[in-house]
Amino acid sequence: MISNRELFLQNTAQTSESPRLIEVERAEGIYLYGPEGQSYMDLVSGFNVSNIGHRHPKVLAAIQQQLDKFMHVTVYGEFVQAPQVQFATDLLSVLPNSFGSVYLTNSGAEAVEGSMKIAKKFTGRQEIIAAKEAYHGSTQGALSLIGNEDYRKAYAPLLPGISFIQYNHLPDLEKINDKTAAVVVEAIQGEAGVRVPDKAYMQALRNKCDETGTLLIFDEIQTGFGRTGKLFAFEHFDIVPDILMLAKGIGGGMPLGAFVARKEVMDVIKANPMLGHITTFGGHPVSCAAAKASLEVIQQEKLVEQVERKAALFRKELDIPQIKEIRGLGLMMCLQLENFEQVYVVSNYCADHGLIIDWYLHCETALRVAPPLTITEEEIKAACKIIREGIAKFC
Ligand code: PLP
């Protein structure tokens, strides 16, 4: 019989020459299990998705209840679907009052696309500024905003009217002017290797956008839902963006994204022409039921409140000379090594010893560590022991 591994290589699209090929049969809490009974601690949360762990019982119950009522019934924005309405209402209740309207999408990239559209239409301007080294997704609009030129060039031509500023660099804010519809930035740059900006920079960026009538769009697709020690990372900077883009951890493991804005900004898609942004599956009712339950879990289990203590334990346990720097905020961390060879062998060593860690798309010299927020102190110590052993052996 042909194995699933062979069928994966044969029949499903391959996105690299060297996929990790870890086969997953089931997942629970912070663990993944393979078909031969192997277990792995998931220290990357399925790439910042499983903030509350895999298959949280409250999310499973909410999904089951919704499955018993209805799944897809119509395209987004026509019928009143309780899971969408209730989740949007809960989401607005944990955001500043300036946010008044939620558009639910299938993914992060779709949230990026919608945000760019409403910013252009609301301001009547055509230019968008993004940050060098940014990552915002793989669709053509999102790809137009990413900093890595190799990726942009390979799929050119992309969107016109886009220029780049250096992230966390005050002088570049001068490039924002009254022709700029929006500045799109990650609250913390993730795939660039977890670059945390200065609070003063973020506040100056907010001021510059206010001065020039430019909308400030924050990508919190990786940083949202407690990851950094606040429910949303913009809270660290004491500013509020005009548009907030969310996905990944939003759905408790189900596919969902959102962009959130002031009502008057969102309303531009209603007319001239009508149906300015539509989607068939965006805000799928089962995903929304999961998202509502997931947000409740984050609040009821006080997961955000535990992030700082857990992050401090990681930093203490990983305080070894071979790790040049631990960048990050909360449980969004990056362990800087010397080169990709070290990253590659250490992450393979970890996988062989039951621990999934990875690296960042545009920073291959550092290990990616972003565990479910539910990880316990004992699990942190066990995980760090394996990382230390791998580093001691190869670095
Ligand atoms: N923005 C950021 C910061 C991301 O990390 C990602 C995905 O990794 C995206 C956008 C795109 O999200 P999606 O993969 O759901 O389209």
UniProtKB/TrEMBL annotation:
<dbReference type="InterPro" id="IPR015421">
    <property type="entry name" value="PyrdxlP-dep_Trfase_major"/>
</dbReference>
<dbReference type="Pfam" id="PF00202">
    <property type="entry name" value="Aminotran_3"/>
</dbReference>
<dbReference type="InterPro" id="IPR049704">
    <property type="entry name" value="Aminotrans_3_PPA_site"/>
</dbReference>
<dbReference type="InterPro" id="IPR005814">
    <property type="entry name" value="Aminotrans_3"/>
</dbReference>
<dbReference type="InterPro" id="IPR015422">
    <property type="entry name" value="PyrdxlP-dep_Trfase_small"/>
</dbReference>
<keyword id="KW-0663">Pyridoxal phosphate</keyword>
<dbReference type="InterPro" id="IPR050103">
    <property type="entry name" value="Class-III_PLP-dep_AT"/>
</dbReference>
<keyword id="KW-0032">Aminotransferase</keyword>
<keyword id="KW-0175">Coiled coil</keyword>
<keyword id="KW-0808">Transferase</keyword>
<feature type="coiled-coil region">
    <location>
        <begin position="290"/>
        <end position="317"/>
    </location>
</feature>
<comment type="similarity">
    <text>Belongs to the class-III pyridoxal-phosphate-dependent aminotransferase family.</text>
</comment>
<protein>
    <submittedName>
        <fullName>Aspartate aminotransferase family protein</fullName>
    </submittedName>
</protein>
<dbReference type="InterPro" id="IPR015424">
    <property type="entry name" value="PyrdxlP-dep_Trfase"/>
</dbReference>
<dbReference type="GO" id="GO:0008483">
    <property type="term" value="F:transaminase activity"/>
</dbReference>
